[in-house]
Amino acid sequence: MKEIIKALKSKFSKIEEGLGGEFEEISNFIFMNPELSGVEYVASAYLIDYMKSHGFSVTGSYCDYDTAFRAEYVLGTGQGPTIAFLAEYDALPITKIQKIGPNRTVKSIVPGHSCGHNWISASTAGVCTCISKLEGIDGKVVLIGTPAEETVGSKVDMVKAGAFDDIDIVIQPHLEGFTDINSTALASDAIEFRFSGKATHAASYPHKGINALDAVQLMFSGVNAMRQQLKDDVKICGIISSGGEAPNVIPDYASCRYSIRSAERSYLNEVSQRVVNCARGAELMTGAQMTYEYFENPTDDILNVEILQALLKENMIAEGIQNIRDNIVMPTGSSDIGNVSQVCPTMYFEIDIEADGPFFTHEDIALDYVNSPYAYKKMHQVIRIMGNMAIDLLSDSRRVDEIKKQHMQSRSILGS
User: Fold this and answer.
1) Side-chain half-sphere CA neighbours of 214 within 13 A
2) How many Cβ atoms are within 10 Å of 260's Cβ, its own excluded?
3) Residue 346 contacts by C-beta under 8 Å, 6 or more apart in sequence?
4) Are strands 139-145 and 82-87 parallel, antiparallel or unpaired?
5) 207 backbone dihedrals φ, ψ, rounded to 5°
6) For the whole model, what pTM was predicted?
7) 175-188 pLDDT, tens per residue?
8) For 311-324, how does the pLDDT look when each residue is reduced to its tens digit (9 = 90+)?
9) Distances (CA, A) of 111 to 35, 125, 183, 226
């Protein structure tokens, strides 16, 4: 069996080398045609056409998202494991400065791939394509296009719609300034609170008014007082999104938005409820009526599986990657990949782009690198790593069963 796997990996490498130019073109096309979250029509259509050209059966408008899709290829009898790779392709709003005179510039907000989703799409489409060219393995390889990662987090809705119910293993990479096989993410709730009061003239009839802005301010005071009694991993960030129209009119409407995060979903649920209680207290104190709703999907923390991590590390080392960070580092951001990891064994990892300067995702400096020779070199390496990892899994269904068992045990321990 070892010799067979070795031969498959050698074949995969040759296939990747032959198709590498196509994968670079995918990265370049999506980079040059950036689209914001939820309107990635060009990118999704391009990826769908590409996967169809390599014999994949494709379902568009997947899970009721116009720009989501599922591309599937049956290997052999199709009775083996189903391995899915996730593509992201939404861009971020970035600031563009244009010089229009010797002493004058104008700023505009335009889409740009400062998070490197063009690279993710190329890498995951590439590995799926190469796997589909292999013979002698059974199972299915699936590319799932997941839009709007930067905003609402489509994967949350796709999880609810059952998109991952028939998937055995999920794999997704991300460019970074370091290599990490123990990726973490904060569970996150994004809640908007709305207060309705009664408008009156602030000087003539203040006693007849109900000040909605007072309710927002009191809520902020309550949340700020609560911070001292929270765990260190909790992050609460808030803004006033509406606070009235004129200072001489008592506001009859005011609203605020909070981003509430914690390292674990179970504790975040407690914290979010306490924030809601602060809003209810402000409602009681002022008489303004309060309502609230989530303006983005709630995201969960990432649940890692040790067997998958060990397999990834083994294949990274085989491809010459040595400086691998596998210790637990306090998470700082959030992602809808966490929700996927709660229902399906998921290997989400970050890979060092190894550029000649500092690389920070979500910052404009990343635009210089995510479609560069550095990114292309790393893309080919990552495709080989993910492909070799998939070959290991597709060739050993018992290992896949062990991974799924360990995943279920971890969920049980966490009370999922």
Assistant:
1) 19
2) 23
3) 169, 170, 171, 172, 302, 303, 305, 308, 337, 340
4) parallel
5) -75, -15
6) 0.92
7) 999 999 999 999 99
8) 999 999 999 998 89
9) 6, 22, 27, 37
